[in-house]
Amino acid sequence: NNTITRNRQRLAYKPKLWATKFFECFPNINMFASSLVSTPKQTTVSVNGNTDDDAENCTELAWRTIRGDTSMASNHLYFNHAFYWNKTVGSIANDNSDNADASIITTTANSIPPDKEIMVVRTEHLWGDLQHLDDFLMRTAIVKGDAQRIDQAELFRQFPNETHGSERHEFRTPVTQVGRQRLCCALVPELKLYVALVQRAVNLAPQERATTISGVMMSCWETARTLEDLMRQCQAAG
Fold this sequence. Notes:
Structural class: mainly alpha
Strand order of the largest sheet: 1-2
Number of strands: 4
Distance between the termini: 23 Å
Helix content: 40-55%
Radius of gyration: 21 Å
Largest sheet: 2 strands, antiparallel
Shape: globular
């Protein structure tokens, strides 16, 4: 039974119990991905993240989580690209459309003007991007001799990698190919914004932008190179 009935009084306004429910629904990443087959109806969500229903389907919880509609189960997915895009670049006009143009936005009073520069740091190129960004921002100071180059080895010696205890996790289930494809298809609205940010990144060369975007799409679907390719594959897969 993929529906877990909750007691309203017991679970109301208690994030830890909601997290328990989340992991009861999805003990591993592939169970989470398998619940993203079809999009459920939209649910009215109150400011505290609870619904008005006495029972919530696990599929609905999966979609609410990956869309960033609730922070009760995952703050990481709640504070997504869309969250920060709306607070900086502009308001998303239609992030669920079939249009692959990721710049479908409306400007607001707090929006970044189109002529302003955007710089990005990619997780898969973290150190290199940070070094290049440092050079980009400190170019004048470096020319004047006021900036000192950071020694990477010395930095790592002083500040070793922090794992936050992930090496002690009991379950390490790798995501399957089908699971990865379902996750990517569910994240298309996020990927639209990701592509838009990469395309506007002034600290990346044109070839770096193209390689970064195609690499992400290929990690979702081997035959995909662009966002349009991925959306066609998702549509074909249903």
